């Protein structure tokens, strides 16, 4: 144990000297993760943790799948790299598989991260309108609480306080409307007698800005990182209708909700809408390699083939659609399909939600929300006032869970005091026994609150 402590200390010292982490001031002593299997990871001290967040909503299929390593290895030996300025077999097959999952005719553009997939969507949307003779349509509408990525456009679309953290001026042209957050209705209404003011806000925003200036609306089917905000069933269809009325494109960010996580291939399929553009990343490779994609309806992509002022879609991309990443993603999606893991995700989501019902009456539990195999537990100081739990209490729950071998997430807004939603999105490899463990740890920690 002493050797290991020494090694760990040395590694952490090297880490502090040579690396620069996301949010580093919050975590001066990061865990050094060394191994993984199924839904569990192991740190350098040999401690095992149930990964209640699939890394960062990523490892859908679960850790340690030899088939995925083999797919990448075999592809690297045959063709490790070639840019998609030409074509290659794994990208061709993967684009077809993604189109099948989307159940419509889509053309797929590959890139490297969720943020980049969204940037590609923004560029496509603007250029699509320009190509059709409406170059004035440059604005995007998204929602408060949404997270769409870390690059300048995606950050501007993001509706969390992080965007104001010394990164201004942000890319212009991004407008925000309130989310369908029924637990804290931004209009002070109650679902059922609200007339869906939150959806109408999009219509109003488009009218106010002038439809001739609006390119697209971007949203996740369910806000995930903003605190698991699940819309009422008629919200997305209504948004689709509003977009159609104004000739505005609907971009759905499926970076988290896609790849089977929602209990359907893509999250929007739970709501019966067809998006114009779909972005995806994370779960399409289950996190084993970086890859993202932006799928556009054929009618949209094909506008770029017609003669016009703006014929070529320019997003020259060195790594996008990397052959090994594509081969791995294809294998990942095939396995998710052949092993029935999408249905499994739905079942696990139901099971988790019903087990969590035992926590519902705890005085600090304001609301429990779920979408597929994603769950959010909103912590409050008082169930009547709904005052969000103080950061200390939220952090305490997370660290007590960690002590007991359970990793969970914390989400919401990045405004201090509103990051009060515990999040769960475990791998689909999770067993009933794992779920028991997860809920028992949570119950134990809540009893001590
Ligand atoms: N969109 C959503 C909904 C996300 O959750 C994320 C990442 N958390 C992104 C986009 C950005 O993805 P990436 O970190 O791969 O750039």
From TrEMBL:
One of its GO terms (molecular function) is transaminase activity. Keywords: Aminotransferase, Pyridoxal phosphate, Transferase. It comes from the Bacteria. CDD domains: OAT_like. It holds the Pfam family Aminotran_3. SUPFAM superfamilies: PLP-dependent transferases. InterPro entries: Aminotrans_3 (IPR005814), Aminotrans_3_PPA_site (IPR049704), PyrdxlP-dep_Trfase (IPR015424), PyrdxlP-dep_Trfase_major (IPR015421), PyrdxlP-dep_Trfase_small (IPR015422). Belongs to the class-III pyridoxal-phosphate-dependent aminotransferase family. This is Aspartate aminotransferase family protein. It comes from Tumebacillus amylolyticus.
